[in-house]
């Protein structure tokens, strides 16, 4: 009787151990599945962030290239405007020079007319 009770007890213990082992394996598998699902979920986010970063890098490079081109074009426009401004100043200087020469020529012309008239009057008064 005692030995049969011990055998029953051992059989129940073995059955409980098997059930516990099965539950432990199920729990490990569930934990593994949960871990894999969490990693997969995080990997999707990380992959999306990586792709976004690559797009941002490409757009930043393109923006830098566009800014460089814009800067070059702006410098060319500034040079062109400076050249145009210099040309306008030169035209103003030429116009001023021409007006000065014109004034000098008029003064000389007036002086010559006066001298001519005076010499004509002097010749006329000597002839009389």
TrEMBL record:
Region entry Disordered, spans = 1-23
A GO BP entry is: endosomal transport
UniProt-listed InterPro entries: BLOC1S1 (IPR009395)
Show the Pfam families listed in the entry. Answer: GCN5L1
Signal peptide, first to last residue: none
- What GO cellular component term, any one, is given? BLOC-1 complex
Q: Which family does it belong to?
A: Belongs to the BLOC1S1 family.
PANTHER family noted in UniProt = BIOGENESIS OF LYSOSOME-RELATED ORGANELLES COMPLEX 1 SUBUNIT 1, BLOC-1 COMPLEX SUBUNIT 1
Supply the name of the protein.
Biogenesis of lysosome-related organelles complex 1 subunit 1
Organism the protein comes from: Zophobas morio
């Amino acid at each position: 009787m005692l030995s049969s009770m011990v055998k029953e007890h051992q059989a129940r213990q073995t059955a409980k151990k098997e059930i516990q082992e099965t539950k432990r394996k199920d729990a490990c598998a569930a934990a593994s599945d949960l871990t894999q699902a969490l990693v997969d979920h995080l990997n999707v986010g990380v992959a999306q962030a990586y792709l976004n970063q690559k797009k941002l890098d490409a757009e930043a490079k393109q923006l830098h290239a566009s800014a460089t081109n814009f800067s070059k074009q702006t410098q060319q426009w500034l040079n062109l405007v400076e050249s145009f401004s210099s040309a306008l100043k030169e035209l103003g200087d030429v116009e001023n020079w021409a007006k000065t020469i014109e004034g000098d020529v008029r003064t000389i012309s007036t002086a010559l007319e006066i001298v001519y008239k005076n010499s004509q009057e002097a010749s006329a008064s000597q002839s009389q």
